[in-house]
Amino acid sequence: MSAEPSAPMEGVDATPSAPPVEASETLYIQNLNEKIKIDALKASLRGLFKNYGTVLDVVAHRNLRMRGQAFVSFESSEIASKALKEVKGFPLYSKPMQISFAKTRSDAVVQKLNEGHFEDYKKERLERKRKARWNNPHRQKARAKRAAAEADGAAPAPAPKRPAVKMPDEYLPPNKILFLQNLPQDVTQAALMELFSQYPNLLEVRMIPTKKDIAFVEYTDEGSAGVAKDALHNYKLDGEQKIKITFARK
Questions:
Q1: Are residues 226 and 209 in contact, defined by beta-carbon separation less than 8 angstroms?
Q2: Quick check: 208 and 192 in contact, CB under 8 A?
Q3: What is the distance between the alpha carbons of residues 167 and 249, in angstroms, rounded to a whole number?
Q4: What is the pLDDT averaged over residues 45-49?
Q5: Whether the predicted model's global pTM rises above the 0.70 cut
Q6: Nearest Cα to 167, choosing from 65, 31, 16, 241?
Q7: Considering all CA atoms of the chain, what is the largest pairwise distance in Å, rounded to the nearest integer?
Q8: Calpha distance 126→117 (Å, rounded)
Q9: Rg (alpha carbons) of the chain, rounded to whole number
């Protein structure tokens, strides 16, 4: 997706016959519900926006940096303007959408409107992206530091390893095992069994002898585990201390 997000705007006075100067064929959408699976989210956005005209493309990413965001491309800026005006603030999956115009055209729009030059456009876009990375201030500083070290005759320092990004517990994919944290120190397996057996298909509760504040709860399927997780997350087991419940790491 080549479209770049623009800064969200407070309001847009636009009509189909007179789109604002900054209008483009692609809308940049923020504040989407991050718990919804990407395929379901894209299908919902396409179903919502097709009422305004042909939807050329809907792009949403799974990576953490782009979670809760999407791009929707139309055949014209007039259609996009009308859709923005009427849909902005619509509560999709209980979260009001923040919508603005993307700064640049998406690949889908360029391919539709200027198919003969699409490959040239794509090459130019990739080259701009490469130059932007090369001119990144942080990378420029690192290159200058290595060059100075080489000029002094010192061996250049190895490039720092990029730290591994660990998926936050809240974004782990659903599975049939729940991970409980922040449990009261005096909690018992029987108490957890009684609590989680309120929800069907409970298989077992596993305590950790050396870590009294955590435990694992397993159901026969991930759907049952999800119901229990949603119902009991932040539940005050002892009346004071909220327990944290996420899906376990596989």
A1: no
A2: no
A3: 9
A4: 91
A5: no
A6: 65
A7: 70
A8: 14
A9: 25
Q: Which of 81, 114, 147 is the last residue of a domain?
A: 114
Contact between 22 and 91 (Cβ < 8 Å): no
Mean pLDDT of the chain: 80
Measure the CA dihedral 80/82/88/93, to 10°.
Answer: -70
| d(C-alpha 244, C-alpha 190), whole Å | 19
The structure tokens listed for 103 are 């700064």
Digit-coded pLDDT (tens) for 51-87: 999 898 898 877 777 788 999 999 888 999 999 999 9
Cα distance between residue 185 and residue 214, in whole Å: 9
Domain of residue 80, CATH code = 3.30.70.330
240 closest CA partner among 189, 187, 190, 170: 187
Q: What is the DSSP string of 132-175?
A: HHHT-HHHHHHHHHHHHHHHTTPPPPPPPPPPPPPPPGGGPPP-
- Its domain, for residue 7, covers 1-114
Provide the pairing of β-strand 55-59 with 211-219: unpaired
Q: Is the Cβ–Cβ distance between 71 and 108 less than 8 Å?
A: no
Q: How many domains does the chain have?
A: 2
Residues in the chain: 250
89 and 186 in a common domain? no
- Kindly report, residue by residue over 107-150, the tens digit of the pLDDT: 777 776 666 665 666 677 677 667 777 777 877 787 788 777 77
